[in-house]
Queue: 2 jobs
Job 1
Amino acid sequence: MTNAPKNDAARRAVGIGQGWHPDAARSMSLHTDAYTKDEWFEVDQRAIIAASWQWICHGEKLAEPGSYVAETVADMGIVAVRGTDGVLRCFYNVCKHRAHHLLEGHGTTKNIVCPYHAWSYDLGGQLRSARHTKHLVDFDTANICLDEVQVEEFGGSVFVNLDADAPSLAEQSGDLGAEIARWVPDVANLTFAHRLTYEIKSNWKNVVDNFLECYHCHIAHKDFVSLVDMDTYTVTTHDIYSSHMAEAGTSDNSAYDVSDATVTDHAVWWLWPNTCLMRYPGRGNLIVLKIIPAGPDRTFETYDFYLESAEPNEAELESIRYLDEVLQVEDINLVESVQRGMSTPAFTQGRIVADPVGSGLSEHALHHFHGLVLEHYDQCKAVGIPALNSDRGED
Ligand code: FES
Ligand SMILES: [Fe+2]
């Protein structure tokens, strides 16, 4: 007698956690099905991306009344808006008439007018006018409002969460706010200077995995390890984030010019599930990397540079070039190769390489990430995410 599920999809749902162990030194990595199969991509979108705090922008973009930023989260349009009352709100970017999107990009506005039939909403999401509707029965604009989404200002940035029941980011993230305040005390004064974008032929979790360990750094990033003092590199995991800290930029290096650096730290945080905040050697700066799932084997990345001035100086231009033309090329080659390997029958899981002191060579933060992924997969099994349950019970 066995209670084993009777089909592949259900077997995968049950077996996806096999091999992972709470002790990193005994653990395997996450099963490759989670990196290659359509159904797990859907679960990632619904149970992870649509249920977590997603970075939208630096606070400067939404500081003024009337300012708005339209974005996409798990393929769904949202728009964050600062009301004339000064309150920051976020809505699904979806008109209540026939579901057309409302605002695009970013800017400032006095009201939200749908480009399709011009229904007009105030910045609180309330429908104020709808053309040619006076003959309708039981129709009252006062009863129609845009659907709200959770929004929060945290660590100098704006985050949203499509899960209406999610605890606040400040509550979930423990000391992260204090760490950002300590290492990036000037965050509120930094301004947008540059964006780099990438499309990567890999699952988003491979990109996160690669970000979370520096075991590969001596091998793959010769210039990076001349910029960052790897002997001081420590990685600490916390509930929903990890801190990756090292001294950096104090010596001659082959990455970029740091001779005028006022920041001599490499202070990096990964925040569940797909946001990375980075303070690199140089002038005051914050670099925000957003890892955006685009398909089982496709990921978009945005790197936003917030600097002391909107015009990067020479050293900053050099650091942006280094990141774009060297470091990113190295990392993208790595993760695309891993994705190809995971798509063969030759690999399903590998050992986590961890050390007890949490050095830069240890993969315990990657193991921590996999533990969080599995926790969310378990939760979605419990609530019956269709992607997992559609085949269940069928013979
Ligand atoms: S869909 Fe927005 S006004 Fe018709
Ligand atoms: Fe790397």
Job 2
Amino acid sequence: MHRPGSNPDAMSPDDILCDFCGAPWDGESLMVEGHRGSCICEPCLRAAAAALIAAGAPEDPASRGDCTLCLRTDRSPVWRSPNGSSEAAETSAAPAPATGAAACRGCIRRSVRLLDASGSDRDAE
Ligand SMILES: [Zn+2]
Ligand SMILES: [Zn+2]
């Protein structure tokens, strides 16, 4: 997401916040942007990929929902950030991350390809 109150004509990296953990972008690691300014940072992306793809996502109906990144309601499981609003509670000055942000498998697959293409060191599977 974009930091509330940020100037869209003069965005700095730390105006870009991960929708899943609320962390600001460091300007160097990969940050994948979805629809409506939604973003997922590299650590969240890796965690999502591990949960949804590498582990073989369980078909749990409870884990389905609207994808924050593509805005579709996917029929496959979605990944939700496990650390919710805990960070926001510590730094009350920071905007609360959008709780309930979810990423579908399709978005994670696409994003992981970007991760690979970006030349990050990542073990081949
Ligand atoms: Zn994140
Ligand atoms: Zn999606």
